[in-house]
Automatic annotation (TrEMBL):
Domain NodB homology: 33-175
Gene Ontology cellular-component annotations: membrane
Alphabetical keyword list: Hydrolase, Metal-binding, Signal
Keyword Metal-binding annotated: yes
The species this protein was found in: Oleiagrimonas citrea
GO molecular function list: hydrolase activity, acting on carbon-nitrogen (but not peptide) bonds; metal ion binding
Protein name per its UniProtKB record: Polysaccharide deacetylase family protein
InterPro entries in alphabetical order: Glyco_hydro/deAcase_b/a-brl, NODB_dom, Polysacc_deacetylase_ArnD
One Pfam family in the UniProt entry: Polysacc_deac_1
PANTHER family: CHITIN DEACETYLASE 1-RELATED, GLYCOSYL TRANSFERASE-RELATED
Length: 339
């Protein structure tokens, strides 16, 4: 009996390393590798979304003091966060009576001084579906004529183009023709995977600023960032559903006061969720961005939705996209269907 017990103990001793290894392997298998969450931030309508040739002019310069201060806050928030970003320029916003204004051009210089990028968003934010291919191409070239020399002073060239309203052509022929035109002039189309209605919230915020309603301003800021985070979560989930992994996302925001006053909070919360901020160039290296975009509708929809349409997914794929609250839409004064 003693010998049997000794043999049993020896057998158990031999099994211990194997059992420990199996347990460690099982533990490792149950710990899922966290997704590689990456996001590229893009801003449309530079130098500022509400700045145009009809903006009431102050006594000195052509940039109203409030807009100048808001732009400075946005730029400082981006710099402090250390996040890459690209801004898409409407060159007509630099003009007054058809002439470029030094203080407006200086806003773009400050953007570049901060190490940020600039891209082409057409001169006048023209709608391809409304004006047709030829007029659209002319507006691209009008912006290029301003943007290219500005970048050349720094030994840079423009590489990215963003369609206004994300309207990319009524027909596949027009889409292909515009893409060929852009390639010929050294541009690539900058898609958007995370769309949102920040412009609605920004319009509401501007009204709260105009009226001096600080309580409403605080309410909008407090609820806007969670809204953006819901949009990020939604499109992250949809990319995983479509592609099987978390796509490096491209998010569209606008150069406005609300983003100036909430960007730091937004970045902090995305960091807490495990996101890394990358350049548009890095995000676009993902092979998903080579997928076909055959969408010809007027809706400024995400490229994730476009790829799903091309792949034949049912409309149930798009269910659940977050919307802005009615009180924000009402305060902004925009039609409900604009959402």
């Amino acid at each position: 009996m003693k010998r049997l017990l000794q043999r049993a103990c020896m057998a158990c001793a031999c099994l211990l390393p194997f059992t420990a290894a199996m347990a460690q392997s099982a533990t490792t298998a149950t710990v899922a590798k966290p997704p590689d969450r990456r996001i590229a931030i893009t801003f449309d309508d530079l130098p500022w979304a509400t700045l145009d040739s009809n903006t009431p002019l102050p006594a000195h310069g052509t940039v109203p003091p409030r807009i100048a201060a808001e732009f400075t806050r946005l730029l400082q928030a981006i710099k402090n966060s250390g996040t890459p970003a690209i801004g898409f320029v409407n060159s007509a916003r630099l003009l007054v009576h058809g002439q470029p204004q030094p203080d407006r051009v200086g806003m773009l210089d400050a953007w570049l001084d901060a190490g940020l990028e600039l891209g082409n968003h057409t001169a006048t934010h023209v709608d391809l579906h409304a004006v047709g291919k030829q007029a659209f191409e002319n507006d691209i070239l009008a912006c290029d004529a301003v943007l290219r020399p500005l970048l050349a002073k720094r030994d840079l060239q423009p590489h990215w183009f963003r369609h206004p309203y994300l309207r990319t052509g009524r027909t596949l022929q027009d889409k292909a023709a515009i893409k060929t035109f852009l390639t010929r002039h050294g541009y690539r189309i900058a898609p958007v995977t995370i769309t949102d209605s920040d412009w609605i919230w920004a319009a509401a915020y501007a009204k709260a600023l105009d009226s001096g309603d600080t309580a409403m301003q605080a309410k909008l800021r407090a609820q806007y960032v969670p809204y953006l985070l819901r949009m990020v979560h939604y499109f992250e989930h949809r990319s995983t559903k479509l592609l099987g992994y978390a796509l490096p996302q491209v998010m569209l925001l606008h150069a406005n006061a609300l983003n100036a006053d909430t960007y730091a909070d937004f970045v902090s919360r995305l960091h807490a969720r495990g996101y890394r901020f990358v350049s548009l160039d890095e995000a676009m290296r993902d092979p998903a961005y080579q997928r076909a975009d055959t969408f010809t509708g007027a809706l400024g929809t995400s490229w994730i939705h476009r790829w799903a349409i091309a792949a034949g997914w049912s409309w149930k794929f798009y269910d659940g996209e977050p919307t802005s609250p009615k009180w924000v839409i009402d305060l902004a004064g925009v039609p409900a269907y604009s959402e």
